[in-house]
Design brief:
Layout (H helix, E strand, L loop, with lengths): L26 H6 L20 H10 L2 H5 L2 H14 L5 E2 L6 H5 L5 E3 L3 E3 L7 H6 L10 H14 L5 E6 L1 H10 L7 H9 L1 H25 L3 E6 L7 H18 L3 E2 L2 E2 L2 E5 L6 H5 L5 E3 L6 H8 L4 E3 L11 H15 L5 E2 L12 H14 L11
Parallel strand pairs: 1-4, 4-5, 5-8, 8-9, 9-10, 10-11
Antiparallel strand pairs: 2-3, 6-7
Helix pairs in contact: 2-4, 4-7, 8-10, 9-10, 10-11, 14-15
Amino acid sequence: MRAALAHPCTHFPLEYPYLMTPLTNDLFLRACLRQPVERTPVWMMRQAGRYLPEYRATRAKAGDFLSLCKNPDLACEATLQPVDLVGVDAAILFSDILVIPEAMGMELTFLHGEGPKFPVPIRTTADVIALPVPDPMVELKYVMDAIALVRKNLAGRVPLIGFSGSPWTLATYMVEGGGSKSFSVIKKMLFDNPQALHQLLGKLADAVAAYLNAQIASGVQAVQIFDTWGGVLTTRDYSEFSLDYMQRIIDQLTREHEGRKVPVILYTKGGMGWLEQIAATGCDVVGLDWSIDIDQAKARIGNKVALQGNMDPAMLYATPDRIRAEVRDILTRFGSGDGHIFNLGHGITPDVPVDHARAFIQAVKEESPAFHQQGSLP
């Protein structure tokens, strides 16, 4: 049965502290820190998205995607929809990773059917030098306003996750001018002008750290770094051009706020060969894509960090019974104990039936308690 939407997001004076109510569901935060939980928490990457008719209506009100990101009221509305309609255990702020390069002065467009574009990409050392590091409380204040609105309207029902793209992933869009299949332009820079690329990545790492710290100060209770394109690199280049800069971010992050720890999640799509190195950064959670069985990942790093994942997003096209069987299999592979946040191995796709997404969330909620009862496994 579809839950009714909660009260709509409405502005309130941000100079007044917003209501800090205790969390009634902190399963996600406890699982991130490998603390005992009654059941496995579950949320979905891209959970505020086009598979929801309500999201499509909100986006239509905004006019276009970037306008939706920059409208705190509507961004709040989109953030809350999967909590109200699907029943996830955490909200993730509705925004986009590319707001950072736009805040650095780059023109950004989202053309229908073409994805994000930077008409004037970064190509030279001079281009890199000209980029400023933005003040997140100025150029990205609309994000902080949205966070405050979400926290007020969530009223402690579930935690709020903030996020950013990794420096390498942001740089790929900025240098390529948009999405890419071959990544030939940025790889040419990597091989022919690595100094310029390192300078760009350093600026981005500091910008991301400041941005995430501003999100934490504004009210997010965990943060995730999306390294969507780290997997296109060789092992040597991943360490030098991606992981080192995520480490630089983690070293600068606020790790405690509002009297509790702020978990940090690192997710590298295609990076399952580097799990040990990712876990060694000091992050609290390693996000898994669907290319590795979770029992293998747990055997390699599960005693050091929590694991997030990792059902194939395409499984949501299957019947609810098949989805439930897959949920049970992943839970069984992880086994008893804590430190698992159930998620997809990548973002939910736009044409997934809403009932299937809801069935997935419900299956995790119903199947997982047995794995958290001492001495009891199905």
